[in-house]
Amino acid sequence: MTLLILFLAPAAKLSSFSGLESHISGNNAVPWNIVFTLTLLTILPALVLSMTPMVRLLVVFHFLRQALGTQTAPSNQTLIGLGLFMTWFLMQPVLTAVDQQAVEPYRLGQITGLSAIEKGMEPPRLYMLHYAREKDLELFASASLGVRPAKPEDLPLRVVVPAYMLSELKAGFQIGAVLFLPFLLVDLVVASITTSIGMFQLPPVVVSTPLKILLFVMVDGWNLLAGSLLKSF
């Protein structure tokens, strides 16, 4: 009996292997779809932070929270959620172009997976080139390319993505600095008043923080900030 089992085991294993091979070859697109989807989900946070307006929005929100003097309000989850939905709103034209040029033809079997990736990266690359500064593009192009292309549209992604991120960081810090100035003025006025009347034991931030929050609410600051951020793109 033992010899019979040992004799039949390789045959059964070979039969199951051949059945598995035929199943994979008959549904060749399914495993690659799974691999592509899992890979995309893994790198999705990095793509959102490096190829969308998310960086600028988060920098501005951080400056606003520091200027108001509220260390944990709104929470990080709230600001990230607001930033994600504003990013989705701003990237709708780009996502639509990616769907029309790459996703839909690949779903219909008209193009291969590699061709879909190449076509799908073109709308985000043009979007980033539109907002990347020429100085930042020149910086990374001179550092990574031996022969510089004739026009910015020919630059590879390894040049466009970091240049776009630097440009977004600069824009976020510029907006944050302008946003910080009115609240800094409130801090200076409160500090000078409390010092002049001899209230040395009372920290000025205890008085200025409620005033800054009240001022921000009275001018409908969140609406103004969101509108200014949307108009900056």
TrEMBL record:
Q: Where, per UniProt, does this protein localize?
A: Cell membrane; Bacterial flagellum basal body
This protein's membrane topology, according to the annotation, is: Multi-pass membrane protein
State where it is primarily located: membrane
InterPro entries attached to this UniProt entry: FliP (IPR005837), T3SS_IM_P (IPR005838)
Which GO CC annotations does the UniProt entry carry?
A: bacterial-type flagellum basal body; plasma membrane
Q: Which residues does UniProt call coiled coil?
A: none
The answer to whether UniProt assigns keyword Cell membrane to this entry is yes
Where exactly are the transmembrane stretches of this chain? 29-49, 175-199, 211-230
UniProt keyword terms in alphabetical order: Bacterial flagellum, Bacterial flagellum biogenesis, Bacterial flagellum protein export, Cell membrane, Cell projection, Cilium, Flagellum, Membrane, Protein transport, Transmembrane, Transmembrane helix, Transport
Q: Its Gene Ontology biological processes?
A: bacterial-type flagellum organization; protein secretion
UniProt record similarity statement: Belongs to the FliP/MopC/SpaP family.
Note the NCBIfam families from the entry.
fliP
The name of this protein is: Flagellar biosynthetic protein FliP
Instruction: Give the species.
Output: Acidisarcina polymorpha
Q: What is the lineage of its organism?
A: Bacteria, Pseudomonadati, Acidobacteriota, Terriglobia, Terriglobales
